[in-house]
Design brief:
Layout lengths: L2 H24 L15 H4 L2 H5 L1 H7 L2 E6 L2 E6 L2 H9 L12 H7 L12 H13 L9 H16 L6 H17 L10 H17 L21 H29 L7 H7 L1 H4 L3 H32 L1 H14 L15 H13 L9 E2 L4 E3 L2 E3 L4 E4 L1 H4 L3 H4 L42 H18 E4 L27 E4 L4 H10 L3
Parallel strand pairs: 2-6
Antiparallel strand pairs: 1-2, 3-6, 4-5, 7-8
Helix pairs in contact: 6-11, 8-9, 8-19, 8-20, 9-14, 11-14, 12-14, 16-19
């Protein structure tokens, strides 16, 4: 008996069964646009506004699947399914897409936000969570209070354009928290410029179609001398690493001199043995927490100011609460916040109404999975439609598209929970093991900012401003910035500026 002759049809049968089973599985993919043969739905996959639209849920339901050059993309359109997949099955859905250009060359897998699910990510995650826990962030209150006052003074003397002041403010806070640097005077500061450039480089590399290597992974093996993109990313990895390390070395120098001020960088250096991170890994982790916090905070502040211009009644109610609790003799402090439920509700509403990343940072499935009869292949990019989930009328009411902090208050005027299992009352900080570890810093910054700015001034459109305010403009990809607008800050009482300056002196 010839074993090869016997084995050949058996192998063929097995292969046939495998193909048939695979075809059967892929016929059970979640519903979605069909796209074109071979290339798939390239146009829609690159349009975050189209993907995040409520119309997509009407068209396809809670899950929408599309493919681009064979890469599956799954958009999750409901909180129920997002929790089921990203939290209850977090062992499968905590990975990130491969992002060859960014992860393997521009950052060499050292960017915590995009690091794949594994040992390095776990070593990054622990210090990030512990370094920005609820108890630790209390040490950052003086930084946030000082910067809130500085922003109020800047806007009080501002001529309509607020963008530069808000950006300087957000980056200055994060720089102080991470490296204990003194306040940054301008958004043109070289440190800020370098970090913003890095964020923009990463954003460019992540744009769909920016690098062919994402479609043809074999291109990663092309020698650098024949691949300009490869030389570019490798060069900037070295430059970025040197900059990150110089900033952290300043913290190490201070510690060596006995200067031990609370900062995330100092925490990593003092606990190097505990966290098992190399000096380069430490430097990249601190910088990544900085990059993630600065851009999203400034974007949320921009959306909040836009909301105030369109909803003057919100300012009136906030002013009344501040007048009753704080009065006119001093600016508010963190100690006042427990007695300012409307301000705290405003923080929740700002984060709910205008998430800086409406489709979140993409997850990826690390194994084949079945969900309610639908097949989700290994390696699928998973996008939680946070903007849509945050505006679910069954949770947030029929006015969910409007900015209304009162939705977070009960009949006694106290802050209430609106989402089961979500203390913050929205999903803008993400899901599962990939939830934002800096969320407590973000909430604290926004709370003291809102309280201080509204205590000192009211915001209105300048005289002669034309056109309607665009309350729902949406960036095609990446961070969702509002359309530029003009905003006039008017002091609420004559002594406001003097009292702000006196309070700022306490932090010098």
């Amino acid at each position: 008996m010839s074993y090869p002759l016997f084995a050949t049809p058996l192998i063929g049968l097995v292969l046939w069964l495998i193909v048939r089973l695979a075809q059967r599985a892929f016929r059970n993919l979640p519903p979605g646009p069909k796209g074109l043969p071979f290339i798939g739905d390239v146009q829609h996959a690159a349009d975050h506004g189209w993907l995040a639209s409520p119309q997509r849920r009407d068209d396809y339901g809670e899950l929408m699947y599309l493919s681009v050059f064979g890469q599956g993309i799954l958009v999750v359109n409901s909180q129920r399914v997002a929790v089921d997949l990203l939290e209850k099955r977090s062992n499968i859905y905590s990975d990130r897409p491969r992002f060859i250009s960014v992860n393997e060359f521009l950052t060499e897998n050292l960017t915590f936000v995009f690091t794949g699910y594994g040992d390095l990510w776990r070593r990054f995650r622990r210090p990030a969570v512990e370094g920005f826990s609820k108890s630790v962030v209390l040490d950052f209150y003086p930084i946030q209070s000082r910067e809130a006052i500085m922003l109020a003074l800047a806007l009080m003397n501002n001529t309509y354009s607020v963008k530069k002041h808000v950006q300087r403010h957000a980056w200055s806070i994060i720089l102080s928290i991470n490296y204990r640097l003194p306040p940054v005077e301008s958004d043109d500061d070289p440190v800020i410029v370098g970090i913003v450039d890095h964020v923009q480089w990463v954003g460019h590399e992540l744009e769909p179609g920016a690098r062919l290597v994402e479609l043809f992974p074999w291109m990663r093996y092309i020698p650098s001398r024949f691949a300009k993109w490869k030389r570019y990313t490798q060069y900037w990895f070295i430059q970025d690493s040197l900059r990150h390390e110089r900033l952290l070395n300043k913290v190490a120098d201070d510690l060596a001199k006995g200067i031990d001020q609370p900062s995330f960088g100092a925490t990593l250096i003092k606990n190097q043995e505990k966290y098992r991170l190399s000096e380069r890994e430490q430097a990249w982790l601190v910088s990544d927490m900085l990059s993630a916090g600065g851009e999203t905070t400034s974007t949320t502040l921009h959306w909040w100011l836009l909301a105030l211009l369109a909803h003057q009644e919100v300012q009136v109610r906030a002013h009344a609460e501040l007048d009753e609790v704080v009065g006119y003799a001093r600016p508010p402090t963190f100690a006042d916040l427990p007695s300012l439920p409307y301000i705290r509700a405003m923080v929740k509403e700002a984060l709910r109404w205008s998430p800086a990343t409406p489709l979140g940072v993409p997850h990826a499935s690390s194994a084949d999975d079945w969900y309610e009869g639908m097949f989700i292949p290994k390696g699928t990019i998973v996008l939680p439609n946070m903007g849509l989930i945050n505006s679910d009328p069954t949770v947030f009411g029929s006015d969910s598209a409007s900015f209304n902090p009162a939705r977070y208050l009960d009949e006694k005027g106290q802050v209430k929970a609106l989402m089961e299992g979500r203390e913050e009352g929205h999903v803008s900080f993400g899901y599962g093991r990939r939830v934002c570890p800096g969320r407590f810093v973000a909430e604290g910054t926004l709370a003291i900012d809102f309280a201080t700015l509204l205590w000192a001034m009211r915001f209105e459109r300048p005289e002669g401003a034309e056109g309607e305010l665009d309350m729902h403009a949406f960036a095609p990809s990446g961070i969702a910035h509002p359309v530029p607008f003009e905003c006039k800050a008017v002091p609420r009482f004559a002594e406001a500026e003097t009292l702000l300056k006196a309070a700022l002196d306490l932090y010098e």
